[in-house]
Give the backbone structure.
Amino acid sequence: MARIVGVEWRHQPAPPTPATIGISGVQDAHVTDGSSTQDPRVEQARQGPQGSSQNLARSQRHRSTRHPRTPVRLSWKDAATVIAKPIGSITEADLLQLIQAGTPESKHIKYKRTLPDGGDSGKVKFLRSVTALANTQGGDLIYGMEASDGIPQQLCALTMPSADQVLQRLESLCADGVSPRLAGVQYRFVPLSGGGEVLVIRIQKSWNAPHRVTAGGHAHFYGRNAAGSYPLDVGELRQAFTLSESVAERIRAFRAKRLLALGNGEVPIPLVPGVRVVLHIVPLQSLTSEFLVDISPRTQQQMQALNRVEPPGAGGWSQRVNLDGRVKYDNECDGMARAYAQLYRSGMIEAVQVWPE
């Protein structure tokens, strides 16, 4: 029987890029000569994803020429953000597009005209919006967008003392007013052509949910649907706690099931004899029922995205759709393959390579 070496990799949300700032990543500004110095990451958040020419040249030198890559996205069912791009790349044009399209508030996006005030009511409203998104599927809060009945109307520059003070205040709110603390919150100050800035806050779906608002003596859990934020009921709380506690167990169960199946010869394509090295990639989002990958490409962009999933060590490959999703395998030898990569409809990936003994 072939020996199997199992490798497990869980995809965690990436740390904030230089163009984004996480709530927990803002440091106090240093004070010199009696004047405050702005946190350099605030300026980076305003400038966006553009880097220096030296960094660009360096990235081009290290870019692989064998398989050129184009930044593309797979098609997901019920995407977690309405603005389908990294937060550091969001510009005024993207926000104006929301207005032109009449994109309403939904499960994944909320518009606010002004920043939250410093009173208990303002703190609770802000944390209610943040935790509702984190407890559900994540999304964006846009401060500086005037809306009527949930429909965006115009961008309005925010009135604020400084970006440093805003970020530090919101960081303090999420540290002291939410239990357990939130992670994966990102900020982006978007400059407006007419002057001033608006603020986009991106909240990732939390895998440490549910989070409770505790500021001002509050003690409620919130979720979000198309109509807005609402208190979670007992059944929803039970489901949230169960999901949070079962994530690791579900990943281990999937991996154990697949390794057992591989040992019994249950593979999407027959493999040559040898030692099998197995890699499982499990995005946390794939553990939710709403997350599905479109494995039937209808555009060139979707085809490019699917082509990123390659059999390990293969110079060329064939592919086909099966009951689990889409599988790619290297050139067959006597009807058997030396490697394959199975993309599941849930977004999980199983990659296997056979090494001769």
Remarks:
- Residues 234-263 form the longest helix (30 residues).
